[in-house]
Design goal:
By secondary structure, the protein is of the alpha/beta class. It folds into two domains: 175 residues, Quinone Oxidoreductase, Chain A, domain 1 (Alpha-Beta Complex), CATH 3.90.180.10; 127 residues, Rossmann fold. It has eight helices and 17 strands. The model has no long low-confidence stretch (mean pLDDT 96). The structure holds zinc ion (2 copies).
């Protein structure tokens, strides 16, 4: 099979992914072989390829927003059959025994493993996954349009759950990339009112088109106080300004894996039971719930397709912010 293999990390300008032919892996026990159709390209893949995050071993095949079809099963696989349409997200497995795993918080397991990092990912024609790391994927998302659901979508959905917003509440979104884009649509579907804070005029326009009630600059004051907000931008200085815009008891959720230091926060901004909470990865329950919602409603994504052999170029475009959409490799 053809695959994009990372032997040694390097600046993406040096095109570190090597496009090679390797044997198709054989699934054993509870493993499933999936024929990859599409795989999203994410900033985490760029961090891996450039060596900012270091996997337990090289070589490794990146890619963790995988859509494909079940091709072959190990002898112990019970849940899947050949031809099932499946998605494989970033979260791959956890120990199953620690207090986090036993309480449905396997995203916090200290032995958690991730797709395209601890195990080979979807920048390849085939990928192996454990039967519990696969999810039924709604077939109505054509042409790779569903790939962004599997990373930014899931994180955004978990963040949205933490906002505890209900019909009629006001939710603020700081930053308007792929994840916020999906959250906005789900929030509106739940009849939550949405304000979007973003610097980019392009994103402001897009947020309005998708139904945001108000859009403005990240430091501006919205017309009403909000019940909750999610910060997607990795900018710690947004924390105090978002808190200023929250109602009493408001929830502020930090969706990023990385954030610059926050400036000092006056206690009056936190008082009246305001909550600041970060989000780390996601659970299998989050993935299931999001894909169920994606089946019930139509989530619009903006994607740009690249062939598998152009994985380095897709990551390079991502680094240079040369794409206004989510990059997706078209494989099968
Ligand atoms: Zn990702
Ligand atoms: Zn665990």
């Amino acid at each position: 099979m053809k695959a994009q293999i990372l032997y040694k990390p390097d600046k993406i300008e040096a095109l570190p992914l090597k496009f090679e032919n390797i044997p198709i892996p054989e699934p054993v026990d509870d493993e499933v072989l999936v024929k990859v159709e599409y795989c999203g390209v994410c900033r985490t893949d760029l961090h891996l390829v450039e060596g900012e995050i270091v996997p337990p071993s090289y070589p490794v095949i990146p890619g963790h927003q995988i859509i494909g079809k079940v091709e072959k099963m190990g002898a112990k696989v019970k849940k899947w059959k050949k031809g099932d349409k499946v998605g494989i997200p970033w979260f791959y497995s956890s120990c199953g025994k620690c207090k986090y795993c036993l309480s449905g918080k396997e995203n916090l397991c200290e032995s958690a493993k991730f797709t395209g990092f601890h195990v080979n990912g979807g920048f390849a024609e085939y990928v192996i996954a454990k039967e519990n790391s696969l999810y039924h994927f709604p077939s109505k998302y054509k042409g790779g349009s569903g790939a962004p659901l599997l990373c930014g979508g899931v994180i955004g959905y978990r963040s949205l759950k933490f906002t505890e917003t209900e019909e009629g509440d006001i939710l603020g979104l700081y930053g308007f990339g792929a994840s916020a884009h999906i959250v906005l649509q789900i929030a509106l579907w739940k009849k939550v009112r949405v304000f979007v804070f973003t610097r980019s005029p392009h994103h402001q326009k897009l947020a309005q088109e998708l139904g945001a009630e108000w859009v403005g600059h990240p430091t501006s004051s919205p017309p009403e106080k909000m019940d909750a907000a999610i910060i997607f931008a990795p900018a710690g200085e947004l924390i105090p300004s978002a808190l200023k815009n929250l109602n009493r008891g408001g929830r502020l959720i930090l969706a990023g894996i990385y954030m610059t230091p926050t400036p000092p926060i006056e206690y009056s901004l936190l008082y009246e039971e305001r909550i600041v909470r970060s989000v780390a990865n996601s659970t299998s329950q989050d993935v299931k719930e999001l894909l169920e919602i994606a089946q019930k409603m139509e989530i619009r994504t903006v994607t740009q397709l690249y062939p598998l052999e152009k994985a380095n170029e897709a990551l390079l475009d991502l680094k240079r912010s040369a794409i206004q959409a989510s990059a997706v490799l078209e494989i099968g």
